[in-house]
Design a protein that fits this description.
single chain; Nuclear Transport Factor 2, Chain: A; alpha+beta; six-stranded mixed beta sheet; globular; 3 helices
């Protein structure tokens, strides 16, 4: 089986069901994470949901012909995010700065998570998780963004619950029309 922590690798061969209790616990974890992000509780999100080894990647998608061997994205090319814990922490701290004018007044968020599939890996404490999302952001009178996509996550089970150790975010929009990406997916 592939190294599920390698950010450049897709979960193409992951299809091993977990027990219903583990699946439900991970679904609850994903819904709690969405609630924290909706409430802009970013510091709590970092402290309770994010593993110290996090790799959070959202590539820029390119429209190419189906027969193009490069595909629509590749690790090492353009990315909206290619973050580790330090970069995520900087982004979270920035939200609380007076100079963060793009977030004042506050943005209203709704993170909708669906199509959740939880799979076992060769490591009994790592889980490969697929999901789809809709991220709705509204600010001021007319600023609204709706971003759809899918995620490939790796969650690590530890003494204090699950932690996100890898996230690959793939949006479906070819051209992102948002004024900013002041959000987490």
């Amino acid at each position: 089986m592939l190294d599920v922590l390698e950010i450049s690798k897709a979960f193409d061969d992951v299809d091993r069901a977990v027990d219903p209790g583990t699946e439900r616990a991970i679904e609850r974890w994903l819904h709690r994470e969405a609630r924290l992000l909706d409430g802009e509780r970013y510091q709590e999100w970092l402290e309770t949901c994010i593993d110290a080894d996090i790799h959070y990647w959202m590539p820029d998608m390119e429209t190419r012909r189906r027969d193009d061997p490069r595909g629509t994205y590749a690790y090492g090319e353009a990315a909206y995010f290619d973050d580790r814990l330090n970069e995520l922490s900087v982004r979270v701290r920035r939200y609380n700065e007076p100079s963060a004018w793009a977030d004042n007044p506050a943005t209203r968020h709704a993170h909708l998570i669906s199509n959740i599939e939880v799979n076992a890996t060769d490591d009994p404490d790592l889980f490969a998780v697929f999901s789809a999302f809709t991220n709705v952001r509204n600010r001021n009178e007319a600023d609204q963004d709706i971003i759809h996509g899918r995620r490939e996550d790796v969650l690590r089970r530890g003494a204090d619950g699950f932690r996100l150790v890898r996230r690959r975010v793939f949006i479906v929009q070819n051209i992102l029309l948002s004024k900013n990406l002041n959000t987490f997916f």
